[in-house]
């Protein structure tokens, strides 16, 4: 922007200086040429009128002597004088006929008894040519041509030198003017760009979370209005964000407090429902169905409360990573065995041995359990769990775990929201065995390992969830490695 402002300023200065120089040059040139021209025409007319010629004119030394006498008295420079009378041709110079006098000037001399003049450039040299016919005054307002026409040819080299000097002065004066204009241009660009630079820095500061950033307001121009508007908007944004953060904090505290308060009565309810489940076979059919429904819904409520407690710990940044070096394939097999997902018709595995990583076993177990359980509930068997490593750079090996199902896949509209809390990809499935927080908790657990998780669809059919966790070494550490030491 600084460059554009300087270029614009210099362009305006160049146009102004060029226009001024051109106008000055034109006026000065016209003044120089007009002065020389008026002086020469007036002087030649006076000389012609004061000189007597015997008619009819005959060529010879007498005529040439008269012409030389007129030429010597030429102003502002000496002339070469030519005379034309019928077939007689004479001059004050060496040649009786001039190559500078044009046919147009001769026609003008015959048409205008008061005389004519013309500026001519011949072989690069400027000349002033003047035609003055000799006339008789026959009355107060009438003139009679004698047939004799005198011509004066005056080189205008001195005037051309002066004009060239004017052009050089105008050009040489414009260039320093542009150099001098660069200084106010820099000052103007600095004064314009300083508020813009402050605005950019303030926007970057606000983008990094410092919402109390303000811009100093200087002056009363448009940039000052912009700074004032920015400060007002920043203050409103800070107030709105503070209210949102307070509301979010209250909501998190509410969810955490409610979840904590529900755990104790839920523990008693779960104990009672276990007893009722054991005796349900001895009850009548309606009562048994009611007992089993109460038991199932109590279990869902317990899962929801535990998930709320877990997500509250993430929100409060109280979740800790207790990392340890584990055999990843063995950890996955243990997760599947603990959930009784060992039937190969339902869950298949591709788990190469020998892959070790620093993980939090409990949180990695929750990640796998949530992904496989989600695939079995909302996808279709068989579900495939695969494990591999990739070395994308010598210092960044990555552990990759994939969970694929054979279902219809995830709707494209649902993919951007699949890890949102309480989001259900199928709007018609308002009740399910899950809490709606499973994938959100999975995402937080993966982030705690400095990893990433993404959801997608396979080319044929089925959904795929990919978890990528950096393989930290003992030297490089990372959040997982540090927490486990």
TrEMBL record:
It comes from the Bacteria. It is an enzyme of class 2 (transferase). Its main location: membrane. It comes from Streptomyces caeruleatus. Its EC number is 2.7.13.3. Residues 1-21 form the signal peptide. One of its GO terms (cellular component) is plasma membrane. InterPro entries: HAMP_dom (IPR003660), HATPase_C_sf (IPR036890), HATPase_dom (IPR003594), His_kinase_dom (IPR005467), HisK_dim/P_dom (IPR003661), HisK_dim/P_sf (IPR036097), Sig_transdc_His_kin-like_C (IPR004358), TCS_sensor_his_kinase (IPR050428). Residues 190-242 form the HAMP domain. It is found in: Cell membrane. The keyword Transferase applies. This is histidine kinase. GO terms for molecular function: phosphorelay sensor kinase activity. Pfam families: HAMP, HATPase_c, HisKA. The keyword Kinase applies.
